[in-house]
Design goal:
The chain is α+β, with helices and mostly antiparallel strands. The mean pLDDT is 96. The chain has a single domain, classed as Aminopeptidase. The longest helix is centred in the first third of the chain and has 15 residues. Helix 1 runs antiparallel to helix 2. It has four helices and seven strands.
Length: 142
Amino acid sequence: MIRQARPEDTEAILNVWLLASLQAHDFVPAAYWWRQQEQMRARYLPSAEVWVCEREGEVQGFIALAGDYLVALFVRPDCQKKGIGKALMATAKRLRRQLTLKVFCENDIAVHFYRRHGFAITEEHLDPGTGQPQLCMDYDSP
C-alpha cells in the first residue's frame, strides 16, 4: 500500500534511505551517508511531501517530492525487484505532471530505471558534497 508518510515513519524511512544509499552508491565513502542522516531527518524529510510503500506493516520504500523535484526514491535493498520502485514512480507521476531529479552517473541501475520511466538527461555536473558526477533528468507528462 502506498500512503502519505506519518511522523512515526521517520525512523523506518531513514533506515530505508541509509541501506539503499550504501548499496547503490558504493563509489561514495560510507561515512558520507552516515553523516547525512541528520540532514535527512532535520532538513530534507520535513520540507518534502513524502509517500511510503508499506507492506506487511513495514516501510519498504519511499519517495520525497519538493515541488516538482523528486528529492528521493529509495527501496530497501531486500525489497528491490518487487515493483515497489515502479509503484512509487507511478505515484510521483500521478501527483506531478513534470518532475526533475539528480542521480549519480555511476548509479547505472537508477539511471536506467529513470530512463525507462520517461526521464531524459538534461545536464551533467559535479555534486558538491561528494565530488561525483551527477545527471540532471527531467520528465514531462505526455
